[in-house]
Specification:
single chain, 200 residues, mainly alpha, 8 helices
Length: 200
């Protein structure tokens, strides 16, 4: 975890902790286990693990490598130029995981989940490159996850958007994003992940 100075004001410390704990990697792990094991028990664990490895673990390993100094604090990729390089690699990794799930006849909800992850990260890339806009991946991934969980289980999961709102506040408070960027991330994640998951 990032070392947080005790001299920071309480809101800044809270915002940094939220940014660290509710980061895309942790959210992907959580939603993969909820859909994989939650719907299929231990039988779904293997397919959930595929999504976790290819959508969270391998991308994070690459991010730490490309971040420059190898420190854990750089995993949020604050530099837009780094994002331009990293996003296609993550997209390819998620696509590989999706291919494995399809080849091993994973249940449709798990294939839908990984396809939604791939579509979300792939959609973020042109926004980053063409629009030169540093959209919030944190809110995109988290909002998309709750959009999928609401369809996998019930609409009560939409209450998770309260967490998305708090996360958006945190990303703005630590000066990583503007309000517009976190709102755009929320909208993109909801629309893309929700639509792709529902299409399956």
């Amino acid at each position: 975890m990032t070392v947080i100075s005790p001299d920071l004001p309480a809101p800044q410390r809270a915002a940094r902790l939220l940014s660290d704990w509710i980061d895309p990697k942790n959210v992907i792990i959580g939603v993969s286990l909820l859909i994989g094991c939650g719907l299929y028990g231990w039988k779904g664990l293997g397919w959930a693990a595929v999504a976790i490895v290819f959508a969270a673990v391998l991308p994070m390993a690459y991010i730490l490598y490309i971040a420059g100094d190898g420190t854990w604090a750089n995993r949020h990729l604050t530099d837009r130029q780094q994002r331009i390089t990293v996003l296609p690699v993550i997209s390819t990794s998620v696509a590989a995981g999706l291919t494995i799930q399809a080849a091993t006849h994973a249940p449709v909800p798990l294939i839908a989940m990984t396809a939604a992850m791939w579509a979300t990260i792939t959609a973020i890339w042109p926004v980053t490159v063409i629009a030169k806009y540093k959209i919030s991946v944190h809110t995109a991934v988290t909002a998309g996850s709750f959009a999928m969980l609401a369809q996998a289980y019930n609409l009560y999961w939409l209450s998770g958007y309260l967490l998305v709102a708090v996360l958006g506040w945190a990303r703005v408070t630590v000066n990583e994003h503007t309000l517009s960027q976190v709102l755009t991330g929320t909208a993109l994640g909801t629309l893309v992940a929700g639509t792709v998951y529902g299409a399956f």
